[in-house]
Amino acid sequence: MDISNILTAFADIQSFTILAIGFMIGLAALGASIGMANMAGKFLESAARQPELIPVLQVRMFITAGLIDAAFIITVAVGLMFAFANPLIGGLGQQLTQAFGG
């Protein structure tokens, strides 16, 4: 395999990975924001209906908010893993090292 084919394959993998990371983080952010908005709206409705339950509902709301944010943060971490330590490159990195005499 010559160097131009290796570089083309490397660039293709990197570009598709960056597009996938963008979609992944964008959809996770959209889902988290919709989930947080829905949860906050339901909390306000239930607090308006039964004000005496506000302390109990508030604790449960914050626990749920943490879980919703955790899913988004895990998605960002996986995206960063693909951005900086891409496992999809595989043997192309070794072939590039050998081609450039490293």
Structure in words:
This protein is mostly helical. It is 84% helix and 0% strand. The protein has three helices and no strands. It has helices at residues 3-49, 54-84, 92-99. Helix 1 (3-49) packs antiparallel against helix 2 and helix 1 (3-49) runs antiparallel to helix 3. The model has no long low-confidence stretch (mean pLDDT 91).
Key attributes of the depicted protein:
about 100 residues; mainly alpha
Which word captures the global form? rod-shaped
Main beta sheet strand tally, sense and closure? none
Termini separation (Å)?
17 Å
User: What percentage of the residues does DSSP assign to strands (E)?
Assistant: under 5%
Oligomer: single chain
Structure classification: mainly alpha
What value does the Rg take, in angstroms? 22 Å
Q: Overall mean pLDDT score?
A: 91
Number of helices: 3
> How many β-strand runs?
0
Uncertain parts: none
Helix fraction by DSSP (H/I, runs of at least 4): over 70%
Note the topology.
Blueprint: H1 3-49, H2 54-84, H3 92-99
